C-alpha cells in the first residue's frame, strides 16, 4: 500500500514457536509467476522485511562475513543456459549499498551456483566454460563440453589465487548423465560434471560437489590433484551404513561440519529425467585414515518432497537445520533431533513443484539492516471522511513502533509536532486511520528499542510530511479503484449581489465548525493525561500480504 512492493503469501503447512526467533529467512524468489525477481528477506513469521528489484535473475542470497562486517551477497545475471549462468557477484552493506561487484578472473563469467567468502578475505566462485573434450565413449572423438571451473579470488585486489578445471582431472565417461541428442557440438556443449558447491578447509584444500557425477571430490588446494572421491562411479570409501552414506544422487551444497569430521549435503535423489526417492538432507561422518563413511542423520520432509533441482542444507548454531527445496518453492526447519518443526511453501499450492515460484537456496541468518532511505507513506481513501495512512520502510529491521504525528506547517519545530496515534510494527505495512480534521501535515516516525542509558526509544527515521489540505490538491488515492483523486478548487458562486455575503457566511460557519471540532478533539486527548501514548491505538499493524 505505501509502496508497490509485493510480499509473498506463505503457506505454513507446519508451524512452531521454536521457529520464531530473531533470525530472518533469506531467499531469492524467481520463476514464471515472479514478474520482478530479486533478493528477499522475511522475518521468522514470514513477513516481508526487504526486497530489491532491478537485477536480472538473482540466485543465492545469503549473509556472509568479510573483514569483521556482515554483508548481503548474491549472484545476478542471465540463466538462459539451462542449469547454470553467466553474471557477477554483489555485496551489499548493512545500509543496502552496493559496495562491491565481484567478477570472475581470466575473462570468464561468474556462475550462479556458489559464491563463498572465506575467513582469509577471499571468494570461491564457480564457472562454466566450453572446452574441447574426448567423447569417444559415445562415438564423438572430439566434442565440446561445459567444463566446470573453480576460482579463488582476493576480494581486496581482485587477484586470482587459484584455478582448477574438472575436465583436466575427471574423465567425461564418469558422468551418470546421458548425452542429449544433438549435444557435444560447439553450439550445444555437453554438461557432464555440473559443479554446484565449493568449501575450503583449514588445510587449504577444497571440497566440491558434482551433480552429474553423484560424487564429492576433495582436491589439493595447491596442486589441484584429487585426494579422494566420495560417492559416484569411483567412490573410495567403505560405506558402514549399507550404502545409505554413498548412494546420494544429483546432490547440492556439500559442506564440512563438526570440525571437519563430517559432511552435510542436500541429496536431491533424482532429476527431471531420473526421478528418484524423496529428497533428503544427509549428514555423514568420515574417517579419512580408514576410509570409511557412515550416516549420522537423515532429514526427511514429512510430505516427501522431491526436489529435482537446486536446494541447500544449512546448520544453525543451535543444531537446527534449514533445508531449501529449490525448484519446489518450499523450505523446512528441523530441530536437533531431525524432526520437521516448520514447513513452508511460498508458491501457488495448485502448482507446487512446477517451478512457478522457486528459490535456488533458502537460509536463516541474523541480520541488522539500516536503510539510507526514509520510511514510505501513502494515504488512501475509504469512501467517507476517514482515510487510511500506510507506512513501511524497506529493509529496516530495528523498527519496533510507528508514531503518527501532525503539525500545521511542514517545517514546524520539533516541539510543535503533536503525536496523534501509535502502532506496533508487526508486518511490512502498518495502517493508521486518520481524519480530515487532523492537522494539515502528517508524518510518521520509526522508533526502535528503549535505550538502556536514556530510558527512551531510539528514533530511527522520519517520513516526509504529507499535506492533507484537499483545497491545495494534495494527492489522495482511492483504495477501491487504485486511481488518484485530485481535490476540487472552490467554485465561484454566480447570482444576485446578496450571494457573496451569503457565501461568506456559509464558509465562515463551516470554518468555525471545523475549528470547534478540532479543538474538541485536542481537548479530549489532553484530558487523558500528559502521556499521549496512553490512548487506545487504531489500526495496529494490519497485514497486507498479497499474492
UniProtKB/TrEMBL annotation:
Q: Which residues cross the membrane?
A: 499-517
Fetch the Pfam families from UniProt: Arylsulfotran_2
State the organism named in the record.
Sclerotinia trifoliorum
Q: What is this protein called?
A: 32263d00-4d6c-4276-a9e5-ac3e7dbb16f5
Q: Which UniProt keywords apply?
A: Membrane, Transmembrane, Transmembrane helix
Q: Is Kinase a UniProt keyword of this protein?
A: no
